[in-house]
Amino acid sequence: MSREEVPVLTEIVPEDRSRTPAVDAAALEALARELERAVLERLGPEVDRLIEERIARTLDRALDGVRAELTVSVSQLVREAIAASVAHALAIPAKE
């Protein structure tokens, strides 16, 4: 078969052929919704895991801050209680 004998696409499929969409708008919308649902269903567990990790990191940082504040507060209260106790003991006259 020579090069001149090979038909071109416009010879096989006429150019003036009216183009109609393969799927109507309602079917296309339904397909889009189904695709969205399927993607979210597959991604859902991963999204949940990522959210849980972020919440855990945020809580860990917040708890570390609260722990540090409580440690400082308790240390200060103990120091003040000991100082008050020693001051009180020194103010009481010794019994002879």
User: Which percent band covers the strand fraction?
Assistant: under 5%
CA distance, first residue to last residue: 132 Å
Low-confidence parts: none
Helix content: over 70%
Query: Using only CA atoms, what is the Rg?
Result: 40 Å
- Alpha plus pi helix count: 2
Order of helices and strands: HH
Q: What's the overall geometry?
A: rod-shaped
Q: How much is the average pLDDT?
A: 85
Number of domains: 1
Describe the largest sheet.
none
User: How many strand units?
Assistant: 0
Structural class: mainly alpha
Describe what you observe in this structure.
This protein is an all-alpha fold. The chain has one domain (23-91). Helix content is 74%, strand content 0%. The chain contains 2 helices and no strands. The chain has helices at 9-12, 25-91. It is rod-shaped.
List the helices and strands and how they pair.
Blueprint: H1 9-12, H2 25-91
Condensed summary:
With 96 residues, the protein is mainly alpha-helical.
Fill in the keyword field for this structure:
mainly alpha; 2 helices; 96 residues; rod-shaped; 0% strand
